[in-house]
UniProtKB/TrEMBL annotation:
This is Anti-FecI sigma factor, FecR. It comes from the Bacteria. Pfam families: DUF4880, FecR. Residues 11-52 form the FecR N-terminal domain. InterPro entries: FecR (IPR006860), FecR_N (IPR032623), Ferrdict_sens_TM (IPR012373). Coiled coil: none annotated.
Amino acid sequence: MTRETAQQIEDKAADWVARMHSATWGPDEEAELKLWLAADPRRDGALLQAQAALSMLTSADTGIFGENPPAEPRRRLSRRSFMGFGGAAVAASLGVAAVVFRGTSYVTDVGEIRRIPLADGSTAAINTDSAIAINLQRSKRLVKVDKGEAWFQVAKDVERPFEVEAGRIRVRAVGTAFSVRKLETGAGILVTEGTVDAWADGAEGQMIRISAGDGAFIGNNAAVERVPPEASGVDRALAWRSGKIDLVGQPLSEAVSEFNRYNKRKLVIVDPKLLNEQFDGVFRTDDPAGFAEMVKNSLSVPIDTSYADQILIGKKSS
């Protein structure tokens, strides 16, 4: 049996919070939670971290992580006190939208990351500069990714498959966790739990199955490009759910592109000789200046932070 990663445990803890907020929470769900906690000692800590977030709650109007993520809480709360809080407060404390909709749309600005509970018990995390529409029907659950990227922790319901549409690309699951990123030429899919089926509309005969830890890009022309399996590769690609960018050997050009997804103040490489310099490390999505400073120190190159809307890296060739 594959050992859960810390990120998977954190995601599941957040999913428990969303379930507590739903109208279906009861003694059976509480018993299931106790079994989940007992199976791995790390899970108790993850739930306690979720509890501690309540101590920094200042209003019910939360659910959006902007360019300044919340500070670490000053104290922890017991699980008993956590279970006693109202569902709306619990949901808000973890950056979960306090209102659950059966059918609605969500839009995030540049730098925004939202986690929302769905009425069926599923959870969606929406990345920066994205737009999704949710329609939970009696026979199936539909999500349309109009722009950007979202990750879904799907509540199992064999009678109602969970289907995501991103342009021509379709992804179907029953109970699993996966992300879909819509691009101009198709969509990228990463699976963190279980399996999903994916295909291009009109090319159902070329449907592929993607398992946990793997991914694929499906083009609008139905061409499939498998993402080579790599240890922790999927977790790194989805580090944005925790407000982070995880780089392992990425060239500076790709790192800059990733930072620019999350910030209105853009990084600009002015020296083309720096484009292929490679970097490792975990960085905050909202700290392009800190990343630029690291590049400056690592490569001994100048940076210019005098502009309000951009940070220049390197020196133009004469």
